[in-house]
Amino acid sequence: MSHKEITILGETILPGESKTINMEIARLHTMTKLKIPIIIQRSKNPGPVVLFTAGLHGDEINGVEIVRQLIVRRINKPKRGTIICIPIINIFGFVNKTREFPDGRDLNRVFPGSKTGSLASRFAWYLLKEVVPHADYCIDFHAGGASRFNAAQIRIVPNNRELKELSDVFNAPFTLYSKNIQGSFRSSCDKLGVKMLLFEGGKSLDINHGITHEAVEGAKRFLLHFDMLNPRKKLPERGKTTIYIEKSGWVRAKYSGLLQNAATIGKFVNKGDVIACITDPFGNFEHKVKSPNTGYIINSNDSPIVYQGDAIFHISQDIEK
Length: 321
Known about the structure:
By secondary structure, this protein is α+β, with helices and mostly antiparallel strands.
């Protein structure tokens, strides 16, 4: 993208300037103002525009913490180009500690939205109209829902060489191939030509420092790749090469009861390994949960109570070599 002025919600940010713009689409039902800070840092030197977003689901706090750390540690001050940070998109859900908007909609299923639609739809529309067109690249940070803990991972669509190269650069422990979902933020960014990496890690209503560290280091590697990382910042760590996963499957509880989880997230298990035990509260039975195949545990249910049919583990089924 050329090094020109950026205008968001009527406010212009010139090269070398920094500004926080507050997006206010609707107030609380008490008429209290509720604003979404959009934090823009621009270098005088030309370069790409990178957008970091989190809180698309209001209860996915770990993503918010990741973007917060990018800001407080001044990683968002670029050597060249522009970095835009939106730590909390779904501010309504964040306030209520819920995934959805007050209208009951999942923001990540209503894109591209409508200026005159539902509350969630209006937020999606303004995000795509005012912010996303300025970006060349986007990293959107998420966490697992319903007590399910995700191993640190990047998700990209299959058969996209550029996204695979960017995933190699970010170098999360795992990279999963997954198709774009209709109505998702990722799908809309793709249609607008914005290259997006979707990061998943941790679980809802929780902050995990290991996940946060993986994400921040990955973001630093991403910026370094484009020569945007501030030279005063410590160079990012390099871990093991990311493991690409093409297929995976869920293990579901065959019984209701107390879940005694014996697995470690990210662990490699063999077919037949005991990864959990489901018991009743009264000492009458114990059911061993065994891995149906060899692979990595990329999601684990941390809930102490499960019902028959609940998803309790997500395990890779084959690994790209």
